[in-house]
Design a protein that fits this description.
With about 325 residues, this protein is of the alpha/beta class. It has one domain: Aldolase class I (TIM Barrel), CATH 3.20.20. It has helices spanning about 20-25, 65-75, 105-115, 150-165, 180-190, 210-215, 235-250, 260-270, 280-295, 300-310, 320-330; strands spanning about 35-40, 50, 60, 80-85, 120-125, 140, 145, 170, 195-200, 250-255, 275-280, 315-320. It is globular and about 70 Å long. It binds ligand PBG. The site of ligand PBG has 11 residues, from α6.
Length: about 325
């Protein structure tokens, strides 16, 4: 680090004196291109249902998706991420609904692709937890979450989503060997151009609570996910996870949750030259919204948090604030 001069000759406040000079020396800028918008889908017709644990966020029935997609396309949000709320009656211990071509995610992909073509990207999780009655991301046998047997289903789930028109497959179960096997079967089935975002450093976190409520897996989850999601005491292990997934063929990697893991984003960015996605998860969202609603912090805190991801080195952020922030940024 080179510092030329010292006080009183050197005054760092000079560059901060007016708005124009602050804009001039700005190192990071948040734009709409940085945002990925998550959408919760529910069955039925004509539904826009609020979610108690996530004020301001809704579950949409497939026919109502244009309510939110019209805005996303207008603001030029690059991509949406789809998450289904699956009714209990469609869940079983194998997560069979994942392979139903008329499940909520498949229906939503078809509608979005038909109506919006390639104006916006679609990203879909590949994991079984929305569909299993025990709430785990994989098959369970004698309390063990099975690694190798589960991947066979995930391959089929990936192919199905690709066939429906999904642009980006996002394996999110944090188990071993997902990326290579999914990449290979996508290639073999003529889906060479489908991208893969690996949830490569996803931690077993307390911040997922509101999401599990939003997708209806909270009550069903038996135990925790510590045998597959990462231990929050570790950071070198995240680098290993990321290195492996890059080697297996990931096009982008994700770090999740977001704010408590800015150090991981930074380390990933410093170690690998690959696009890094941050996920500002449901618990982070709800804390901030509750803080704003109670008058403890003001609305600018939203952009402040999203900019912290950019500073740490994220290329884009999955955030429940995407629509609000995009609308603000495009009115500037
Ligand atoms: C499931 C999944 C989770 C989230 C996204 N995909 C939660 C989990 O692992 O239980 C959490 C997102 C959020 O909290 O916003 N594979």
């Amino acid at each position: 680090m080179i510092i030329t001069g010292k006080y009183p000759n050197l005054r760092l406040r000079r560059n901060r004196k007016y708005d124009w000079t602050r804009r001039l020396v700005q190192e990071n800028t948040l734009s709409v291109n940085d945002l990925i918008l998550p959408i919760f889908i529910i069955d039925g017709k004509n539904k826009k249902e609020s979610i108690k644990t996530m004020p301001g966020i809704f579950r949409y029935s497939v026919d109502k998706i244009p309510l939110i997609l019209d805005k996303a396309v207008k603001y030029k949000i690059p991509m949406v991420a789809l998450f289904p709320y699956t009714r209990k009656k469609f869940k079983d211990k194998f997560g069979s609904e994942a392979l139903n071509e008329d499940n909520l995610v498949c229906k939503a992909i078809r509608l979005i692709k038909k109506k919006y073509k390639d104006k916006i990207g679609i990203m879909c999780d590949v994991a079984l937890d929305p569909y299993t009655n025990h709430g785990h991301d994989g098959l369970v046998k004698n309390k063990e979450i099975l690694n190798d047997q589960t991947i066979e289903i995930l391959i089929k789930q990936s192919l199905l989503q690709a066939e429906m028109g999904c642009d980006v497959i996002a394996p999110s179960d944090m188990m071993d060997g997902r990326i290579l096997k999914i990449r290979k079967s996508l290639d073999k089935n003529n889906f060479k151009n489908i991208q893969i975002i690996s949830y490569a450093a996803k931690y077993a976190s307390s911040f997922y609570g509101p999401f599990r409520d939003a997708v209806g897996s909270k009550k069903s989850l038996k135990g925790d996910k510590k045998t597959y999601q990462m231990d929050f005491n570790n950071s070198l292990e995240a680098i290993r996870e990321i290195a492996l997934d890059i080697k297996e063929g990931a096009d982008m990697v994700m770090v999740k949750p977001g704010m408590p893991y800015l150090d991981i984003i930074k380390q990933v960015k410093d170690n690998f030259k690959i696009p890094v996605i941050a996920y500002q998860v449901s618990g982070e969202y709800s804390l901030i919204v509750n803080g704003i609603n109670k008058g403890l912090i003001n609305k600018n805190s939203i952009i402040e948090t999203l900019t912290s991801f950019k500073r740490a080195g994220a290329n884009a952020i999955v955030t429940y604030f995407a629509e609000t922030v995009a609308s603000k940024l495009s009115s500037n």
